[in-house]
């Protein structure tokens, strides 16, 4: 069965920063002109994108000075090591490509898949009290992880980076250092912390120290 999904842009592997409104990001990020260089034989402007609170990873953009296209995008961790990179290998710009893309408007697409919206708000007995500036709640979800066991999650985003907090009953009280575990894979950090018999897990695109602060800020209320 074929179907279509409504989205603001096509699903691809381009960095999230390419689709963002820089005027909106400027409230939480600094854009620093880092000079000029060449990508291949193309003159490029180098722009560093850093969070004002130094609690996120850093983007370095290499932008074609003539066509304003990103030729290379580096994502750096706190040690200035590249943890992810987008690089243009070949580029071709001409009017024929534009006309070919226009022809897509005439293609009969599969029917649009309508995803029902939640009819009832999900209320949890926990909340995150410390968020990096600019992050907003996007979605709440419940997940069944065993026959009689469920996990609650909240997704947050600032437009460039996303993370989710998952909470479920751990069924046991753990003492340090067993109560917390951390792992980083590329840009993604996974951090789990046991608090008051609840297992709190952070999965997202922020440095460990920021993830730790967010998880430690989770508070529970009686329900």
From TrEMBL:
A GO cellular component annotation in the UniProt record: outer membrane-bounded periplasmic space
UniProt keywords, alphabetically: Periplasm, Signal
Domain MucB/RseB N-terminal: 3-103
Cited Pfam families: MucB_RseB, MucB_RseB_C
Record-annotated membrane-spanning stretches: none
Localization annotation: Periplasm
Sequence ranges assigned to domain MucB/RseB C-terminal in this UniProt record: 123-218
GO biological process, one term: regulation of polysaccharide biosynthetic process
Matching InterPro entries: MucB/RseB_C (IPR033436), MucB/RseB_C_sf (IPR038484), MucB/RseB_N (IPR033434), MucB_RseB (IPR005588)
Family designation: Belongs to the RseB family.
PANTHER family (alphabetical): PTHR38782, SIGMA-E FACTOR REGULATORY PROTEIN RSEB
Protein name: Anti sigma E (Sigma 24) factor, negative regulator
Species this chain originates from: Proteus mirabilis
Gene that this sequence comes from: rseB_2
